[in-house]
Amino acid sequence: MSRNQQINEEKKEERKKKILSGALKLFAKRGLVATKISDIAQETAMSQGLIYHYYNSKEDIYTELIKTAFKKLIEACYILEKTEATPKGKIIMAIEGLLKGLTDNEDTALYHLLIAQATVSDVTPNEARTIIKEHNTVPYDVMTRIFEQGQKDGTIYHHNARELSILFWTTINGLAIYKSSHGAKSFTPDLSIITSMFFKK
Amino acid sequence: MSRNQQINEEKKEERKKKILSGALKLFAKRGLVATKISDIAQETAMSQGLIYHYYNSKEDIYTELIKTAFKKLIEACYILEKTEATPKGKIIMAIEGLLKGLTDNEDTALYHLLIAQATVSDVTPNEARTIIKEHNTVPYDVMTRIFEQGQKDGTIYHHNARELSILFWTTINGLAIYKSSHGAKSFTPDLSIITSMFFKK
DNA sequence: GTCTATATCCAGATAGAC
DNA sequence: GTCTATCTGGATATAGAC
């Protein structure tokens, strides 16, 4: 690829990112169907036709966002699992990291909301649905393993580890959704309240 | 009103209930815009035109459901508050009742999901938005008061009571959303795990 | 009350000029 | 690459027969 081609490629990627970023806000808050291409065009200060220069359809943009959402989430999960720390330490890091993301970065809550919506909705495009099916269990699996290890070393309550994991993620999810409507800075719960669900005293 | 008129009124109410019940499932799972009147017609085995005999618009049906959702929720809150029980007892009853509703009654999770969606979305019709604004704080207020009382009698941790209340509801909400996609019977967390966020040991 | 047929509108996607 | 104009399909809501 020539030098110019490469610059153009980068410009193109920039534009695509801009579209995705505008679309994320809209999709998360309105859902796939209620978000119009004209909304995305307006949000990104492009013409309607130009959007189609970068993406073939509205559903493509949506699916791309779902891909990114899981990529970020799963990457964070694996990093967490590989960290040098006790299970209890990992759980604290997970909650801290997630709460920090939800308060400091507007997009974090939107990504959570997007995944929640896409998982629940039955108008989710097939390609996105497939991605969800393939990746959705990873965060649950990772947290289940960490809880199991914490039960072995005696720091975590002996409930079913899978259920603890589900409760962990549903709690985070509930918070993310609350923050999506009340604002990222609206409120951040005390770390110790959430951990008290899992840690022995 | 004559006897016949009264019977007709009842029949009419029956039909309206049937529409609402079908629409609840669809709205909760697809959102307002993605749900077509033809979907509701199919779900309730009526013709498309007939729906308009009972409701003036799709948004009217939606708004009616939001009204019902809050009516049920707020009524339960007030009953809880008036019950003869200690604050701790009330919190246990609340969680038990909510979990039971979420597992035994399909509609419960759907109502929670509907409220969550309508609160977050910015395509929610104005009338529905007004209802939310007027009623949304009630459940938070009621639980805040109960937590405060529990702090006075020494059974509840001394975190900010409002924040405990928000955490309480976001946790329930997260669970409701999980159940909406994984099925009402998919999993029910142990009562004691959730209460451990709030109760001193 | 219930249905079918249809007017009307609007959104997704495309075509083609620049 | 970017825009404007337009085609096309589909959804809301209405009209009118039964």
List the helices and strands and how they pair.
Two copies of one chain form a homodimer.
Chain A (H helix, E strand, L loop, with lengths): L2 H32 L2 H7 L4 H7 L3 H25 L4 H18 L1 H15 L5 H10 L1 H16 L8 H22 L8 H5 L6
Helix pairs in contact in A: 1-2, 1-4, 1-6, 2-3, 4-6, 4-7, 4-8, 5-6, 5-8, 5-9, 6-9, 8-9
The first copy, chain A, binds a DNA duplex (18 and 18 nucleotides) through helix 1 and helix 3.
Word description of this protein:
The structure is a homodimer of 201-residue chains. The first copy, chain A, is built from ten helices and no strands. With 201 residues, chain A is an all-alpha fold. The first copy, chain A, has a domain of 137 residues: Tetracycline Repressor, domain 2, CATH 1.10.357. The model of chain A has no long low-confidence stretch (mean pLDDT 97). Chains A and B meet through helix 1, helix 6 and helix 9 of A and helix 6 and helix 9 of B. The first copy, chain A, binds a DNA duplex (18 and 18 nucleotides) through helix 1 and helix 3.
